[in-house]
Amino acid sequence: MDDKGKKLFMGKSGNGPRGKAPHGKRKFKKDNDTGPAKTVFNKGDEEGKPKSISKKFVKGQLRPGNPTVKQFKNKQQPEKFAKKRKLQDGEEGGSDSKKPKWSDFKKKKKELKQTRQTNDKSNYDIIVKSKQIWESMRRRKCDMAKREKLMNELQKLLRGKIRNLAFAHDSTRVIQCFIQYGNEKQRQETFEEVKDSLVELSKSKYSRNIVKKFLMYGTKAQVAEIIRSFKGHVKKMLRHAEASAVVEYAYNDKAILQQRNMLAEELYGNTFQVYKTPAVPTLDKVLEAQPEKREAILDEMKQILTPMAQKEAVIKHSLVHKVFLDFFTYALPKQRSVSI
């Protein structure tokens, strides 16, 4: 049926129904607006126009309907930045100047080391030959006759140069092997070359093992000479990272009672050493004979032991532990059960 014959139902207010408006007459207009009504175009209403207006912002253009929005144009960079970029890309300091390769740098360093070693022909040739003998001599398959022959060859190479070769990481192993497998004459000859610098050897990372080898395989006279050379240097050696291990090994494994007391008396202070005699050799006997010097001796012990107490590795040594016990025993007579 046609819509022309129908009558629209009017409400009390005189307005029309709230249903859909007829097609083509839809307008968005408010009661207070005086301007023209805005119409909405459907997709494809007119040819030659876009189907829909995009809400995305187009760089360099104005948004439709907003004439006051500022335009964002592609600004060109200043000339100074362009010049700087050209310098970076150029030959002077840009990407073309490549860093040296690690393989080339390593190769040059190796060549420099070889030239330095060949210039010092006196020690370099000896080290190379001695290491070749050492490689054959230290194997278990090497029999006694062959080892004795190699030891004689090695003795000729090392004679008079042990002091200079003792501080290197490779040549010190050769000397240790020579001390271990050598006879008494060969060890004595080697000991004569290093006996004046035992404290210095003990403080080195590699040569300290030479001193320990003499303590292991040396004679009683050689061991006594080594321990005697530590006298006057015990405090500094105990606080040294490398030398403390040598003193600890000598005190625990090789020293007799008299030698142990000699190593420990330096930690009791100068006052104790002044009043110490062969008849009164220990701390308890000195305190009994000289009771008025008790406070002076204990104060000196405290000054010596305080820096050592700050190092955990030092306080674990048997020598230092013994002196600590003596100090607490006589400094705190009522609390003898104190443990460290």
TrEMBL record:
Residues 20-29 have a biased composition (Basic residues). Keywords: Repeat. Residues 1-118 are annotated as: Disordered. Residues 95-105 have a biased composition (Basic and acidic residues). The keyword Acetylation does not apply. Pumilio repeats lie at residues 193-228. Coiled coil: none annotated. Residues 129-340 form the PUM-HD domain. InterPro entries: ARM-like (IPR011989), ARM-type_fold (IPR016024), PUM-HD (IPR033133), PUM3 (IPR040059), Pumilio_RNA-bd_rpt (IPR001313). The keyword Amino-acid biosynthesis does not apply. GO terms for cellular component: nucleolus. GO terms for molecular function: mRNA binding. One of its GO terms (biological process) is regulation of translation. This is PUM3 protein. It comes from Nicator chloris. The lineage of its organism: Eukaryota, Metazoa, Chordata, Craniata, Vertebrata.
